[in-house]
Amino acid sequence: MKSNTVEQSEKKKFRLGLVSKLLIGILLGILIGSFLPEGLIRVVITFSTLFSSFLKFVIPLMILAFVTMGIADLSQGAGKLLGITASISYASTLLSGSIAFFVAINLFPKFISADVINSIGDPEAGMLAPYFSVPIAPIMEVTAAVVLAFLLGLCISSMRGKEIGDTTYNFMNEFSKIINRVLNTAIIPLLPFYIMGTFANMTVSGQTFTILSVLWKVFLVVISLHLLYLLFLFVVSGTTCKKNVIQMLKNQVPGYLAAIGTQSSAASIPVNLTCAENNGVSKEIRNFVIPLCANIHMAGSMITITCCVTSVLLMSNMPINLGIIVPFIMTLGIAMVASPGAPGGSIMSALPFLPMVGIGSDSALASLLIALYITQDSFGTACNVSGDNAIAVIIDTIYNKYIKKSEPAKNAEAVK
Predict the structure, then answer these.
(1) Which parts pass through the membrane (predicted)?
(2) What are the domain boundaries of the chain?
């Protein structure tokens, strides 16, 4: 009996993570595109095309569910602190994306040369067509989903318990759980097969190895930017709040490692709360800021997406400048609010907005972005989570200096 139990526990322990499955999918896609006959390759491509249609149908529902609940739940905090924390988090997300773009636009052309661009040409030229496709029209446009999510979220947050009850809130809460179930049981598990089909088609067209020779360099730049941006955040936080920056960074190591292991900001919250406590953040502030920023502070994700988009546009010889990338970053900073804790949640939120920079949300380039993003998602999550603690120190200082001191005075005036 004991030996059977041990064998069962060992089987349970051995599970391939999403990144491993994705890398296997890429490898299998290359092998399929290189060695299998065209007829079998088109079978794989047909599945990939069907999945793409399903994904396009689900994305507006995902945005409606998660953004609505994200806004509705954020309003349950203290008014001033909520506004300050949300503003700093959004500013940090925009700043990280802007820095990533300036680094990428100046550095990437050094290894994405004209020769590379000419050898790639049109990444979708020469690709095989699926045997058939099933167009599934989304219930609503992505822009309409974003607008409706904001309307519902703001109205629920301001009217709940005053003019309306909990019915709408509970409905949207359960709806978000349904969409999260779809994401975790259908979308995420099938992503490796989707990527496999894309790489099989890219291999047939002769573009795979040329593109991969560029993307591994992009990967190194992205990880370096994550670490440098974290250093910047902690230096700003430590110097302005008069705390030891080196000690703050040491205290954050467990939270960083937990985020790499879980690939989830939400799952890292317990460890991150301990990191905040070690940094001297008061209990009421850390219990408010850390869970809040886990949903709204996406600096690491923004760095990754901006760098990946810039590299893809450069490889495709498509126009890219501040006028194109800034609106994309500003929109994405909002759309990623309360993106699901499942790996790849941020890139799923970004897919509908890729046409803003000229990339089709269901194109081969989009699936390439998904692949590159998820392979480093652990590091992006670690950057998000660690940056939350730098913000928590700033909010704690603001609270103790300006808000907490003013409360007794207001109470005294009220008594008079």
Answers:
(1) 18-37, 43-69, 81-108, 128-157, 178-195, 215-236, 320-338, 350-374
(2) 17-403
**pLDDT score, position 92:** 93
Q: What tokens appear for 258 in the block? A: 């937990």
Considering the domain delimited by 17-403, tell me its CATH architecture: Orthogonal Bundle (1.10)
Output the six-digit token pair for 226: 């994550």
Rounded to the nearest 10°, the torsion over CA 403, 407, 410, 412 is: -150
Residues 6+ apart with CB under 8 A from 375: 19, 22, 23, 219
Lowest mean pLDDT among 35-44, 54-63, 275-284, 336-345: 336-345
How do residues 115-160 score in pLDDT, each as one tens digit? 665 655 555 666 788 999 898 888 888 778 878 887 888 888 778 8
CA-closest candidate to residue 354, choices 325, 317, 379, 378: 325
116, two tokens = 């590379």
Rounded to the nearest 10 degrees, the angle between the axes of helix 364-375 and helix 377-398 is 70
Count the alpha carbons within 13 Å of 357 in the hemisphere toward its beta carbon. 35
For the whole model, what pTM was predicted? 0.73
pLDDT of residue 383: 93
CB 276 within 8 A of CB 290: yes
Three-class SS of residue 197?
A: helix
**pLDDT tens string 202-250:** 788 776 776 677 778 888 899 999 999 999 999 999 999 989 999 999 9
> What are the contacts of 101-107 at 24+ separation with CB within 8 A?
101/306, 101/310, 101/322, 101/325, 101/329, 103/221, 103/225, 103/307, 104/221, 104/306, 104/307, 104/310, 104/311, 105/310, 105/320, 107/221
